[in-house]
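Input (structure):
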């Protein structure tokens, strides 16, 4: 799964990243500049180009339909998560080193 890499990359961009848990709840709450996005981290595409892990589970789909806040972004790679953060959170500047 790409979740640990996503957490490291978004933290290096200066974001606050909070892993979430609960039945059907998305994986990560990410904040910066007074804005928040939700990310569901899924496994990247398989070696033959297929998806190595299906989409949202039934519980996740129910939760997304119930949730009235910002949309949930499904990210399969670190690059996808960075693109969401840049677009939705207004990230500017460079990566910073994270211990």
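Output (sequence):
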């Amino acid at each position: 799964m790409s979740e640990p890499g996503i957490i490291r990359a978004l933290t290096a961009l200066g974001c606050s990243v909070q892993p979430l848990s609960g039945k059907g709840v998305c994986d990560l709450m990410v904040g910066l500049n007074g804005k928040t996005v939700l990310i569901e981290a899924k496994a990247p595409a398989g070696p033959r180009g297929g998806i190595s892990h299906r989409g949202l589970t039934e519980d996740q789909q129910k939760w997304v339909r119930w949730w009235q806040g910002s949309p949930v972004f499904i990210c399969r790679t670190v690059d996808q998560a960075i693109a969401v953060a840049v677009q939705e959170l207004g990230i500017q500047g460079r990566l910073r080193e994270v211990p």
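Notes: Strands lie at 16-19, 28-32, 35-41, 72-75. The mean pLDDT is 85.
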